[in-house]
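User: tokens in, sequence out, please.
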């Protein structure tokens, strides 16, 4: 008698991680002076605003975020190469541990940071670097996992697929459930992040993001389906 393999839990975990991106976006945009540290498309747009001299946007902050994100993506790519052909569980848990550690470090830095005055400046830039490196690692890892429609950070292609593959467009509503879930997750994360940032500051949402990332990853590696594709 054949036994069907366990249902892959990775898509659900990635939807959960998408919600943490909303948290990070709220932290960076509302607390770090009009800069994205997770969404680099938005950050490049903000950099363009700064180049044009629009008040409230900083070339230096945007450039630092971009550089830190690229550094994190490089580290994430190196980790993926290091674990190539090895344990998928160990790889994902390692990345999540480093990502959560960076965000917890950011939470500690945020204890001495005033988001209204953006002082001290050294804390501001430390927060940009720590969160951008963490999200760069995340993006590189998720890119290697290559789960369709679940990048965890950007939604443009997800929304395009939702509309372009819909019945209205003559399509078959491919993966509409995970696409809608991704949009709702990032919106929910951003809403929760906005409430926390404006009410209690940056340390709490940063720590919450780190804890959620670790918990989701631990739940995944404990799931039987995490052995699927162990050898990459």
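Assistant: Sequence out:
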């Amino acid at each position: 008698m054949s036994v069907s393999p366990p249902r892959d839990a990775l898509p659900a975990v990635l939807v959960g991680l998408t919600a943490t991106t909303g948290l990070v976006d709220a932290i960076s945009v509302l607390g770090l002076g009009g800069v994205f540290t997770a969404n680099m498309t938005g950050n490049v747009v903000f950099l363009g605003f700064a180049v044009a001299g629009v008040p409230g946007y900083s070339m230096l902050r945007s450039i630092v975020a971009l550089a830190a994100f690229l550094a994190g993506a490089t580290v994430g790519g190196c980790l993926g190469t290091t674990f190539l052909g090895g344990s998928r569980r160990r790889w994902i848990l390692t990345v999540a541990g480093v990502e959560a550690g960076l965000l917890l470090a950011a939470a500690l830095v945020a204890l001495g940071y005033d988001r209204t005055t953006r002082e001290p400046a050294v804390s501001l830039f430390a927060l940009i670097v720590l969160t951008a490196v963490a999200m760069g690692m995340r993006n590189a890892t998720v890119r290697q996992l290559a789960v369709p429609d679940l990048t965890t950070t950007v939604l443009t292609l997800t929304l395009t697929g939702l509309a372009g593959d819909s019945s209205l467009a003559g399509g078959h509503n491919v993966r509409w459930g995970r696409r809608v879930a991704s949009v709702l997750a990032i919106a929910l994360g951003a809403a929760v992040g906005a409430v926390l940032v404006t009410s209690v500051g940056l340390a709490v949402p940063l720590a919450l993001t780190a804890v959620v990332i670790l918990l989701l990853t631990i739940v995944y590696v404990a799931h039987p389906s995490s052995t699927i594709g162990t050898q990459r």
